[in-house]
Design a protein that fits this description.
14% of the residues lie in helices and 33% in strands. By secondary structure, the chain is of the alpha+beta class.
């Protein structure tokens, strides 16, 4: 579905941070962690967008965040992670004239150690009704 989008409909999604849940031996509930960039800049994901027509004739737009193997900053938490693009790759990623699969695929790798940092946060992040500063504070600060 996204083969054509990879060639022509790439986008960037900047976020301040992401949550990832980590299995903890001896605990039923996974531990949520907040990941942000160590340089405090936005985390920018490599994404694709696509559109299609439903059987009812409605135009449906969708997007996907591209994932890759976990890099050194994520591997203790999860075995996959979103592809985080560095500022110097953004223009090439977005350029629809760039269709060199090898160049684009070369961007879809985990980053080097030290780009992301993480800390454990409260279980409340698992409920979309919860809002507030406490959802990003480390459990160790309380």
């Amino acid at each position: 579905m996204f083969r054509s989008a990879f060639r022509q409909r790439r986008l960037l999604v900047p976020v301040s941070g992401i949550y990832e849940w980590q299995a903890v031996p001896g605990r039923k509930a996974k531990q949520p962690n907040l990941l942000t960039r160590t340089d405090e800049e936005p985390v920018v994901f490599a994404d694709l967008w696509e559109w299609w027509r439903s059987p009812e004739g409605e135009e449906i737009y969708s997007a996907t965040i591209i994932t890759t193997d976990a890099g050194p900053d994520m591997e203790k938490i999860h075995n996959r992670q979103p592809v985080v693009l560095e500022r110097e790759t953004w223009e090439r990623w977005l350029d629809p004239a760039v269709d060199a699969d090898e160049e684009l695929e070369g961007m879809l790798r985990p980053g080097p150690a030290g780009v992301l940092r993480h800390w454990p946060v409260a279980q409340g992040v698992g409920n979309v009704r919860n809002q507030g500063q406490e959802l990003i504070e480390t459990l160790n600060s309380k």
